[in-house]
Design goal:
Rossmann fold; single chain; elongated; 14 helices; Four Helix Bundle (Hemerythrin (Met), subunit A); alpha/beta; 480 residues; 3 domains; four-stranded parallel sheet; four-stranded antiparallel sheet
Length: 480
């Protein structure tokens, strides 16, 4: 039974989607005015773990992630660079989509604000007709928060002094804390036509419109970074529940903790960002995924190169274990019974899978799930490899690959690099020479061969049925 923390209720709740077997999920995407940074990856990858585990648990997940391709920041940055705002947005959208692919994140649909202006206008019309919004003299449209009695429940922020204001609009608002649904055009800015005059959508309205267009009037999961709880998600909730006349609009609000550097949140405003494109080039997407997996999604994750180096070591161990288990399954004959010792190993492997699932069922506790993976790797390398059992190798291999359905770092079996026939024959010859030296008790010479082969990335494992060898798999990414 999956239990997940709901930001709205501040409690761990049993996960029950609105429709049996189907999960409708929405996660706030980027505003493409600059390069993505590592904090974005932390949020997107963390939610990907949740999506993958839901799929592994048997759910059909429909996942929508928006792109805010028109915004004050885009307009401002484009002017600074002397280019059209569309050119700037498209440049960083392309980068974003490419990085998602490298990070192995799959999204079913990426709606863009500029492709849904008509939908946004119609949504605002309904809010006005229902008395939840009003048109100001400038032609801007605002949501009247006094018309919605549950404002502040999601964030717990009700004190006026905590609310951010747009000073230029204060004079035309009925209440200081009303927020813009439609912004009247300013000189030199892009605009679209509406019944209230030329302008463009406010920030919050876009997510309500695009999520409901593709997922309906009830979302099972709405996610984002914790910095979006207020005001963005609070405002989304107010306008959506007012529009649909139902509560809850979202069954489970899920928020990912920040990425920090020396305890400070990574953000462009603080100037302490690490560009995601550089991080992927330096560490590789698999190492980044493992590093992010090491922290609970709701907790801060501090950037430390030592932690990433550790993740790289773990990734190398995963690759090597996967490779040697595949080699055992391919080369060892199938046996039809297991010894008592091998049965205990089989049980131990099954137990690691149980611990992995139990950890993720408890609010997607990835650090505990990672501990279960480490146990599996230890069993595989200390007990399975030395047992020479095809059945145990297959059990360990499939368990590792099922864990990876959530973690997402292994290459597909068909893409695992294999050595050429000629090299295999040469390695077999060297291993045979070493075995003959061992038979003659020439251990110094045989140890030297093992050591030299190890320097070439060829590892040997002496078993009761002879010496087994495999090539250490290496990531294509390296530190520069």
């Amino acid at each position: 039974m999956l239990r997940i923390y709901n930001t709205l209720t501040k409690e761990l709740e049993e996960f029950k989607p609105s429709e049996v077997g189907v999960v409708k999920a929405y996660f706030c995407g980027p505003t493409p005015y600059d390069h993505l940074h590592l904090g974005h990856a932390r949020a997107f990858v963390s939610f990907d773990f949740i999506r993958r585990y839901l799929i592994l648990s048997g759910y059909n997940v429909f996942y929508v992630q928006n792109i805010t391709d028109i915004d004050d920041k885009i307009i401002r940055r484009a002017k600074e660079l002397g280019i059209e705002w569309q050119e700037l947005a498209n440049r960083y959208i392309d980068e974003y989509l490419g990085l998602l692919k490298e990070l192995r994140i799959e999204v079913d649909i990426h709606p863009r604000v500029t492709e849904h202006i008509a939908d946004i206008v119609e949504f605002i019309k309904v809010l006005i007709d229902k008395g939840h919004a009003y048109v100001a003299p400038s032609g801007s449209v605002y949501f009247d928060i006094t018309s919605y009695g549950d404002y502040g429940k999601l964030s717990g922020r009700m004190r006026a002094e905590e609310w951010r204001q747009e000073e230029e609009f204060l004079l035309e608002k009925r209440n200081p804390f009303d927020f813009a649904l439609w912004k009247a055009v300013k000189p030199g800015e892009p605009f679209w036509h509406s019944p209230w005059g030329p302008g463009r959508p406010g920030w919050h309205i876009e997510c309500s419109v695009m999520s409901s267009k593709y997922l309906g009037d009830t979302l099972d999961i709405h996610g984002g970074g914790q910095d979006l709880i207020f005001p963005h998600h609070e405002n989304e909730r107010a306008q959506s529940e007012s529009y649909f006349g139902k509560s809850p609009w979202v069954r489970y609000w899920i928020h990912v903790g920040p990425l920090t550097i020396v305890g400070e949140k990574m953000s462009k405003s603080l100037g302490n960002i690490i560009r995601l494109v550089d991080a992927v080039k330096t560490w590789g997407p698999e190492v980044l995924r493992l590093w992010i997996f090491s922290a609970h999604y709701r907790k801060p994750l501090d950037y430390k190169e030592e932690a990433l180096e550790q993740a790289r070591t773990v990734f190398k161990k995963i690759l090597n274990t996967h490779y040697v288990l595949m080699k055992m399954v391919k080369e060892r004959p199938i046996e039809y019974k297991l010894s008592e010792k091998e049965l205990k190993t089989w049980t131990s492997i099954s137990r690691t899978w149980g611990e992995f699932v139990e950890s993720l069922d408890n609010d997607i506790n990835t650090p505990r799930a990672l501990a279960a993976l480490h146990k599996l790797l230890s069993i595989a390398n200390s007990e399975v490899v030395t047992s020479d059992s095809n059945s145990l190798a297959f059990k360990a291999l499939t368990t590792l690959e099922y864990m990876d359905k959530v973690i997402g770092v292994l290459p597909p079996r068909e893409e695992v690099v294999r050595t050429s026939d000629e090299l295999e024959e040469l390695i077999k010859l060297v291993v045979e020479v070493r075995s003959r030296l061992r038979a003659k008790r020439m251990f110094e010479e045989s140890d030297w061969i093992r050591s030299e082969l190890g320097k070439l990335g060829i590892r040997l494992a002496d078993t009761k049925n002879g010496t087994m060898w495999f090539i250490e798999k290496r990531s294509r990414y390296s530190r520069e």
